[in-house]
Amino acid sequence: MSQYTELKAKIAKLQEQAEEARRLELETVLGEIRRKVVEYGLTAQDLGLTMVRRGRPPKKEPLPPLYQDPASGNTWSGRGKPPKWIMGKNRDGFLIRPTQA
User: How far apart (Å, rounded) are the C-alpha atoms in residues 84 and 92?
Assistant: First the structure.
């Protein structure tokens, strides 16, 4: 058998032994951790184990309209592509004025 093959066989055997030692020690370590969590009343948040949400961020609330077309009543927030009814015109005339209460 070549030296390389012998070394690979030893590595595989050592990996099996390491996994077995880990499994045996893990039971003891987990027991100690559980006792400490109960003893000190620790929470997942205390340990930095809070859930991190992944994926899409929550949708934002739509912006309130700033402009309104007096003819159709359509509104626009002032963000994004301007609608045809306001395009190329002075926007001051379309501003929605706050009502006095």
Answer: 16
What is the token pair recorded at 62? 């739509």
∠ CA 87-92-93, nearest 5°, is 85
In which residue are the tokens 């963000």 written? 79
Residues 6 or more apart whose Cβ sits within 8 Å of residue 80 = none
9-34 confidence digits (pLDDT tens): 999 999 999 999 999 999 999 999 99
Cα–Cα dist 70/1, whole Å: 91
Proportion of the chain above pLDDT 70, given as a percent: 96
CA distance 58 to 77: 20
How many angstroms separate the CA atoms of 52 and 78, rounded?
34
